[in-house]
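User: Hi! I'm working on a homework problem where we have to compare a predicted structure to a textbook description. Could you give me the structure for the chain below?
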Amino acid sequence: MAGYGPEWLNLCLPGLFAGAFILPGVLLIWKSTRITAVICLMASFIGGFAPSLLYMKMGYVKLSGSPHIVVWTPLMIFLVYKIRSPEVPTLARLVICVDSAVIVVSLMLDYPGVINYLAGGYAAAGTAQ
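Assistant: Happy to help. Predicted structure tokens:
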């Protein structure tokens, strides 16, 4: 996805990719987290590629984060539940925590942009209004 949006986003994409695809893949190791891994990978596929479709259709606008909000907010609720589950091994719990942190950072960037866009701020993302 090189060249997608502003430069700061291109710098963040490797970390987001690791949090979205590599860390959930690690959860496949433990039997108790395999379903969690599949759910995370499916959510990451949708949340990762849907913004690209919006980008192709509309350019890089603040609305581009809306697929993350729709998919990753319920995923975070599920992950919080899973972190508290006694059946999850300690190392798997750590992986889920790190993955959750990556998702939270992404959502912290997405929510303000989408709210601003829906409130009438239609300027391209990364530009002043």
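For your comparison, note the following. Residues 16 and 105 are 9 Å apart (CA to CA). Residues 8-118 form one domain. Good luck with the assignment!
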